[in-house]
Design brief:
This protein is an all-alpha fold. It has 15 helices and no strands. Helix 2 (15-43) packs antiparallel against helix 7 and helix 2 (15-43) packs antiparallel against helix 8 (188-198). The two termini are 16 Å apart.
Length: 441
């Protein structure tokens, strides 16, 4: 029997889904503005210089400490009312947005600046995990793929819009420390709006419905990593798709470093196509278009071909785009590569998100999302850091482009190998039996 597709209007008719989506959009607008404002302050500020090692250090300080804490905070998403967690987290990171902005205005660099930014980014990931873990509470399981595609796609596009706003504010307020600080501070509006919208939920409506936790909070938090890893391992659909996504993230980290340095030191404007931070804005728009297309097409592609063929096709497409569009290293081909690679990567991400939401039990879902987010961060930081050690300052390195393409193929091999693993689910309390009628199952 053919599955009936719901349009976005049908989902937006569900008040709780609409509120959850609005919470996500406000949060991700603030994220996009904050990240672009900070990138402008650190990478494209005439008062500062940035080399590959400094860029890699920035990524490491921003993402790695949270990656250590992430799995443990996942236990909190499965222990406390997720509504309260999302509200408190947003208010907290709004405060740290202001601290980061003050640090930029004061001309601080290195560790003092990154510590404040670390808290904003880390709690932002925590909020994202909470929103993803909450989605099955507001939408029927049969429509999770579509609901997730709409929420993730709209959120990613809103983040791109936030980044574009940062570039616009920077043009008005100035590119130096003062203007960059004021631009970055505007992100506080998104965080506080997100907290206010989330506060309108009734207590407990976002879960968790059951708390599979020891009474001692410290023990519960310490167990987060182990439980998340167990639930992931016992769910082959999640393990395999996650391996594919991590390969994409590693390749993306390599490409990101190449693109940043090309835009900063190597490329020049070509007509309406810009180098520098304006070029990064155009790359973000191209990527946003890819995310939008993925959000529209993923559910239909999965229904038509199945999740296995969809992920295989996405990885092959990214490898081909990396070689065909990445190697020329010109502004037009970089934009085209951004569109194709982010489009295909988003398809894989939507498949992973839905696999976790559908196949992992609610009592451990927050920990699995937090573990997934942590691996996501560690993989990108590792790729960026290794790339920084070998890349020339101008970013021109065909060998790194070929390496990125190879990572997609390695991810494809890992995906097929892990998917073939026929492992008996030994802990039914942690994971659900796969539903063969579901496209992700």
């Amino acid at each position: 029997m053919e599955k009936h597709h719901w349009g976005s209007r049908r989902f937006l008719g569900i008040p709780e889904y609409r509120r959850l989506l609005a919470t996500r959009l406000a949060s991700q607008w603030g994220d996009g503005l904050f990240q672009a404002g900070l990138a402008g302050a650190v990478l494209f500020n005439p008062e500062r210089q940035a080399d590959p090692a400094a860029i890699a250090a920035g990524f490491a300080v921003l993402l790695l400490p949270y990656s250590i804490v992430g799995p443990f905070t996942g236990a909190l998403l499965d222990r406390w009312d997720r509504k309260k967690v999302i509200v408190v987290a947003n208010v907290t990171r709004a405060a740290f947005v202001l601290l980061t902005a003050f640090a930029v205005v004061a001309g601080l660099s290195g560790l003092p600046l990154y510590i404040f930014a670390l808290v904003v980014m880390g709690i932002g990931r925590f909020v994202g995990s909470g929103l993803s873990a909450s989605l099955p509470h507001v939408v029927d399981e049969d429509h999770l793929v579509e609901a997730n595609a709409l929420a993730t796609t709209a959120g990613a596009i809103t983040a791109v819009f936030g980044a574009a706003c940062a570039i616009g504010f920077r043009t008005i307020l100035g590119a130096g420390d003062g203007g960059s600080g004021w631009t970055t501070s505007i992100a506080v509006v998104g965080m506080l709006a997100s907290a206010f919208i989330a506060s309108r939920f009734k207590a407990g409506v976002l879960g968790p419905d059951e708390v599979d936790e020891p009474h001692n909070a410290i023990t519960a938090v310490a167990r987060g990593l182990v439980d998340g890893a167990k639930a992931t391992w016992h769910t082959p659909s999640v393990t395999a798709a996650l391996a594919a996504l991590l390969a994409h993230r590693a390749a993306f980290g390599v490409s990101l470093m190449v693109t940043l340095l090309l835009m900063r030191y190597s490329l020049e404007d070509v007509g309406i196509l810009k180098a520098g931070i304006g070029g990064l804005g155009e790359v973000a728009v191209a990527g946003g278009a890819g995310i939008l297309l993925a959000g529209i097409l993923t559910d239909r592609i999965v229904d038509r071909f199945g999740v296995k063929t969809t992920i295989i096709g996405a990885l092959l497409l990214t490898a081909a785009a990396q070689i065909g569009l990445g190697l020329p290293m010109t502004l037009p081909t970089i934009l085209a590569a951004s569109f194709v690679i982010i489009f295909a990567g988003q398809i894989v991400k939507l498949c992973v998100d839905t696999a976790v939401q559908h196949d992992v039990g609610d009592e451990v879902r927050g920990r699995v999302f937090a573990l997934y987010d942590t691996l996501f961060n560690v993989t990108q930081v590792t790729a960026v850091s290794i790339t920084a050690m070998v890349i020339p300052l101008d970013g021109r390195s065909p060998g790194l482009i070929i390496t990125a393409a190879s990572l997609y193929l390695i991810g494809l091999g890992a995906y097929l190998l892990l998917l073939a693993r026929k492992r008996q689910v030994q802990h039914p309390g942690l994971v659900r039996e796969n539903d063969s009628s579901h496209p992700i199952g």
